[in-house]
């Protein structure tokens, strides 16, 4: 499936959240990552995130799409997307 | 259509971008808005954004979906979404 994650995390925890998300997804913008991910890897990512975040302060929004084709992306200005090859998949 | 907007904007322009986006969409998180929008209103929003942003520095990602049903949203932590009644629609 294709997943878009946006987060709003307390300063102390934000780097850990970014690091965990980058194992599975591509960074596309400040606090935003996206990419193709398996159901199993998404479950792993979610359980890792749950261990880091403070549920009463932080927020992680996970938008799940069947496929990347369900979304039509348009960018105004620059595309900041970075793709790294250190992913698990 | 259903639209999700995430932006990464220079400090001087970020408040104007937020204000314009909030005319058409619901604020859901820092730098993230989403909502149902007509094609015409999206075109208007885009032309307003283009007038504000610096194309060589700022980035606005517009994810367009046919319908809200194409996306399955899961939230970890708190839901910060705010819905205001001061929209144009």
UniProtKB/TrEMBL annotation, chains A, B:
Extent of the signal sequence: none
EC number(s) stated in the UniProt entry for this protein: 3.1.-.-
Q: Where are the transmembrane segments?
A: none
GO biological process per UniProt = defense response to virus; maintenance of CRISPR repeat elements
SUPFAM superfamilies, A to Z? TTP0101/SSO1404-like
NAD listed as a keyword: no
Q: Please give the function described in this protein's UniProt entry.
A: CRISPR (clustered regularly interspaced short palindromic repeat), is an adaptive immune system that provides protection against mobile genetic elements (viruses, transposable elements and conjugative plasmids). CRISPR clusters contain sequences complementary to antecedent mobile elements and target invading nucleic acids. CRISPR clusters are transcribed and processed into CRISPR RNA (crRNA). Functions as a ssRNA-specific endoribonuclease. Involved in the integration of spacer DNA into the CRISPR cassette.
Fill in the subunit field for this protein.
Answer: Homodimer, forms a heterotetramer with a Cas1 homodimer.
**Similarity comment text for this entry:** Belongs to the CRISPR-associated endoribonuclease Cas2 protein family.
**Know the name of this protein?**
CRISPR-associated endoribonuclease Cas2
């Amino acid at each position: 499936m294709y997943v878009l994650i946006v987060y709003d995390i307390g300063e102390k925890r934000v780097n850990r959240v970014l690091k965990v998300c980058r194992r599975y997804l591509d960074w596309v913008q400040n606090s935003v990552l996206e990419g193709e991910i398996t159901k199993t890897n998404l479950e792993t990512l979610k359980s890792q995130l749950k261990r880091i975040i403070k549920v009463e302060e932080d927020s992680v929004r996970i938008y799940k799409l069947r496929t990347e084709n369900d979304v039509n992306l348009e960018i105004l200005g620059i595309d900041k997307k970075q793709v790294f090859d250190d992913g698990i998949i």
